[in-house]
Automatic annotation (TrEMBL):
The keyword Transcription applies. One of its GO terms (molecular function) is DNA binding. Transmembrane segments: none annotated. This is GntR family transcriptional regulator. It comes from the Bacteria. It comes from Paracoccus alkanivorans. Residues 57-179 form the GntR C-terminal domain. InterPro entries: GntR_C (IPR011711), TF_FadR/GntR_C (IPR008920), WH-like_DNA-bd_sf (IPR036388), WH_DNA-bd_sf (IPR036390). The lineage of its organism: Bacteria, Pseudomonadati, Pseudomonadota, Alphaproteobacteria, Rhodobacterales. Keywords: DNA-binding, Transcription, Transcription regulation. SUPFAM superfamilies: GntR ligand-binding domain-like (SSF48008), Winged helix' DNA-binding domain (SSF46785).
Length: 194
């Protein structure tokens, strides 16, 4: 996973992904258009560092949209869905215990997307993918530095799914997104002072 302010090169990404430069070049152009990457000069493309206002706006949007997904997912959760959520949380905990925080963040993202899948809301899932493209590097960088728990509210969401309590799932998702706010803001500010 890329990190805020990380320089991106076509060659480097092609090597990392094991592909040729043409699809990477096309992907970089799309990511520039979607503001997932920023071009500072013709030879300097980077992962942007979100400003605090941008982070807060995206967090507010995520609270509403992911809260809606969690609420709907809880209302219609099946035993297999709950098992998948539990497996993702277990994988997240294993990654945290092994000090593999970037991997833990990837599992965290998978948990959030699984709720949108469970809610059977493909348009919402598409929107969330775009939001996570913008927010993912920031979340990954913060948790890799801060080493904070990623799953405490996920257990609350799973419990709400087991009892089909949509409002409780929504409230737990809100807490999951809001809890790291101060730390993430401090992390953003560290780029300005550093």
């Amino acid at each position: 996973m890329l990190r805020p302010d990380q320089k991106v090169t076509i060659r480097g990404l092609a090597e990392m992904l094991g592909t040729s430069s043409t699809p990477v070049r096309d992907a970089i152009q799309r990511m520039l258009q979607d503001q997932v990457l920023e071009q500072r000069s013709p030879r300097d493309v980077r992962v942007p560092v979100l400003e605090v206002a941008q982070y807060l706006e995206i967090a507010r949007i995520r609270i509403e949209l992911e809260g809606m997904a969690a609420q709907q997912a809880a209302r219609q959760a099946k035993p297999g869905d709950i098992s998948r959520l539990r497996r993702i949380v277990a994988q997240t905990e294993e990654a945290m215990a092994a000090d593999r925080w970037i991997r833990a963040v990837e599992y965290n993202q998978r948990f959030h997307f699984e709720l949108a899948n469970m809610a059977d809301m493909p348009v919402l899932l598409s929107i969330l993918h775009r939001l996570w493209l913008r927010m993912g590097p920031l979340i990954a960088g913060y948790y890799d530095c801060a080493r904070k728990d990623l799953v405490s509210h996920h257990y609350e969401i799973i419990a709400a799914c087991e009892t089909r309590d949509g409002p409780a799932a929504r409230a737990a998702m809100r807490a999951d997104i809001e809890e790291p706010r101060k730390g993430i803001i401090a992390y953003i500010n560290s780029f300005e002072s550093g």
